[in-house]
Design a protein that fits this description.
14% strand; 232 residues
């Protein structure tokens, strides 16, 4: 019993606060992702996907049971944070259950830890094709199944360009200044259609990306309109 006050203090001021900071860090990381997705969408809105349409990246909370259960566990550890007396044996075991899995060397628990603490997996990302005139949705893409080869390629190029914008922190419409915009693509456009190849190159051009394209002698009739220098 003489250790109870000290244990209560460590749980309340140490562990519970650390869990709160940990939860705040995870939430903050996803808010950063949300901001970058908004940046990508500003870029994509000005790039024609099909005639009169553009692509918008959309997201919603994942239905993954492990992630949903983990977030519920975190909330359970932080219930009644505004109350003066935070200690309870039940709350101690809630925290312990999470930390035990984090500390486990079991392969299943390690995989679980990697998944639930990666905020990119807290949401499911999709693409929405929308009309430029009224912003109404034309088609929703949760994947590329049931799409033609050309449609798959165009969607893949859009996501690739979006990833580059995300990675480099670019914003459509701004001057190049001294921002880094270099991308190297190996085996580029080898099997794609002329239409999708032109779309991809036009997309990268509109984003002011500087490309080094390594390709077999294919689609030269399309590629040649977008290159300044050739090394054979």
């Amino acid at each position: 019993p003489r250790f109870e006050a000290r244990f209560k203090e460590l749980l309340q001021e140490g562990v519970i606060n650390d869990i709160a900071m940990f939860n705040h860090r995870l939430t903050g990381e996803f808010e950063e992702i949300e901001a970058k997705i908004a940046l990508i969408n500003r870029s994509l809105k000005d790039i024609k996907y099909h005639e009169g349409t553009y692509i918008k990246i959309v997201y919603e909370k994942t239905t993954d049971t492990d992630i949903r259960a983990f977030r519920e566990q975190l909330r359970g550890c932080l219930e009644h944070m505004d109350e003066k007396d935070l200690y309870s044996e039940e709350k101690f075991y809630r925290v312990k259950a999470i930390l035990d899995r984090f500390n486990s060397t079991n392969a299943v628990d390690e995989t679980w830890t990697d998944k639930v603490t990666d905020v990119r997996k807290w949401y499911e990302f999709s693409a929405s094709e929308r009309f430029s005139s009224d912003d109404k949705e034309k088609e929703f893409y949760s994947g590329s199944s049931k799409k033609s080869g050309g449609e798959k390629e165009m969607l893949a190029y859009t996501i690739l360009a979006s990833a580059l914008v995300y990675q480099f922190g670019l914003e459509w419409g701004r001057g190049k200044s001294r921002t880094f915009r270099f991308a190297m693509i190996d085996e580029a456009f080898g099997r794609g259609s002329d239409v999708s190849t032109k779309y991809g190159l036009e997309l990268f051009k509109r984003l002011d990306l500087q490309l080094l394209v390594i390709t077999p002698i294919q689609k030269v009739n399309v590629i040649e309109n977008y290159i300044n220098t050739v090394n054979f």
